[in-house]
Amino acid sequence: MNQLRQLALLALICSPLRSPAQQWPVHSLDRPRPPVVDPGPERPPVPPPADAIVLFDGKDLGAWQSQDSTPAKWVVRNGYVEVAPHTGVIMTKRGFGDFQLHVEWAAPTPPKGESQERGNSGVFLMGHYEIQVLDSYHNDTYADGQAAAVYGQMPPLVNACRPPGQWQTYDIVFHRPHFAADGSVRDSARVTVFHNGVLVQDNTAITGWTVHGSRAHYQPHPDKLPLVLQDHGNPVRYRDIWVRELGTSP
Ligand code: MG
Question: 11 in a domain, yes or no?
Fold first, then answer.
């Protein structure tokens, strides 16, 4: 083996194979912020498709409960539900695996707090994989923690946030992870997200359960788990939540 090939082999052995999500330390403030894209004005909700399971139609939280299975404690009024700070998450009574999900949310106005303390909530897919909800309109934070990030893993492709108080949409396509019999990951979960109609996650591979401040890892779990909306202590509002279950992944 000549010296050049030896060096090339050494370089290959020494450089860990990294997926794009692993090029930056978790919550790195050096990670570039995605470009800002104005998604256009807010729009009134449209009726869900005929085969959608309506999870919240503005009237009641019958499809939801608290983590301890008691009734959901968030406040329903005027066609929306608002986080009642420090009452805990709300979660669907049903579980979902592969699905298309539509959620609308609005951050509090006037805005209060900065960075992660401004309009923070989150849509936890299968209860473990957070698509961040945050008022990212003129509110800097670490890239993997801004609105529409896979929290702690992947920033959105662009920042398509509307101002606080305006309604925003997430349209999410999620494919659950698959685990081998020994609990190892056979297929990572994948997610595509449109924020206000703008593509922000393009079939992103999720690297594990959402955690704060450390590298994500998978733990095996059932094929269907509830959707969870996060109580981060900020009175974020939600409306018009529906889901369409997709066929079983191959
Ligand atoms: Mg959050």
Answer: yes
Instruction: Give the residue numbers spanning the domain of 127.
Output: 3-39+50-245
Residue 69 lies inside a defined structural domain of this protein: yes
Question: 73: CA distance to ligand 1 center in Å?
Answer: 18
CA torsion, ordered 146, 152, 157, 162, to nearest 10 deg: -20
Taking the centre of ligand 1 as the mean of its atom positions, its distance from the CA of residue 91, in whole angstroms, is: 15
Number of domains in the chain: 1
92/66 Cα distance (integer angstroms): 9
The pTM assigned to this predicted structure is 0.90
For 4, phi then psi, to 5°, come to: -65, -45
* 191 located within any domain: yes
Q: List Cα–Cα distances, 42 to 84, 200, 220, in angstroms.
A: 24, 17, 39
Within the chain, where are the H helices?
Answer: 3-14
Query: What's the distance, CA 120 to chain centroid?
Result: 12
The 10s digit of each residue's pLDDT in 225-235 is 999 999 999 99
Ligand 1 center to 181 CA (angstroms): 32
| pLDDT > 90: percent of the chain | 89
Q: What distance in angstroms lies between residue 124's CA and the mean position of ligand 1's atoms?
A: 9
Please indicate, yes or no, if residue 45 is contained in any of the structural domains. Answer: no
CB under 5 Å of ion ligand 1: residues: 120, 122, 230
Distance 221 CA to ligand 1 centre (A): 22
